[in-house]
Amino acid sequence: MVNTKTAEFRQLRFTSFADVGRDLDGLEAAHRAGTLRQTGNWTPGQIFTHIAAFMNYAYDGYPPELSGPPWIVRFIMKFFKNRYLYKGMPRGVRIPGVPTGTVGADDVSFEEGAARVRAALARMDRTEPTRPNPLFGPMRHEEWKAMNTRHCELHMGYLHPR
C-alpha cells in the first residue's frame, strides 16, 4: 500500500469539465503509448469508475455506506464546503466505517473507466443533480460541478503521462 498523502502527485487545476476531458485525452494517449504511470494504490480503471460513481450517485442515489453520516460530521463538514469546492480535496482520506475506505472503485479496463467518466461528466454538465449531497446537503449546479472537478483533480493527480 502506498501512502497517498506522500506519494508522487501531479498538481492539477481544472476550471471546467472540458479541462477534465482534455486531461483525460492526454492520459488516454499515454496509456495507448504505454507511457502512463500511476503513483497511488488504484489502477486507472478504478480511479475513473470511482470518479464516475460519485457523480452518478448525485442522480441515482448514494450507497448505504454514504447515505447517513452522523449529524456532527455533517455539521463540521459544512465549514469545509467552500474549501473542498474551490481549493481542493485532501489526499489520503478514508471514509470511516467503510472497510476499503471508499466505494465505487470498480477495477475495470482503462477504456471502460474512461468511458464512464466521460458519460458522467456529460450528464452532470447538462443536468443538475437531483439528490442532496450526504455531507453538504442541497447544492447548486455550479457547486456540484466545482466539487466534481476537485474530485477529478484529486484522483487523476496520481496518473502521470510521460
**Low-confidence spans:** none
Q: Report the sheet-strand fraction.
A: under 5%
Instruction: Tell me the overall shape.
Output: globular
Helix content: 40-55%
Spatial arrangement of strands, main beta sheet: 1-2
Please describe the topology of this protein.
Elements (H helix, E strand, L loop, with lengths): L16 H17 L3 E2 L5 H17 L10 H8 L2 H6 L23 H17 L14 H16 L2 E2 L2
Antiparallel strand pairs: 1-2
Helix pairs in contact: 1-5, 2-5, 2-6
Describe the protein.
With 162 residues, this protein is mostly helical. It has a domain at 64-162. The chain is 50% helix and 2% strand. The protein is built from 6 helices and 2 strands. It has helices at residues 17-33, 44-60, 71-78, 81-86, 110-126, 141-156; strands at residues 37-38, 159-160. It has a two-stranded antiparallel ribbon. α1 (17-33) runs antiparallel to α5 and α2 packs parallel to α5. The longest helix has 17 residues, at 17-33. It is globular. It starts with 16 loop residues before the first helix and ends with a strand. The mean pLDDT is 94.
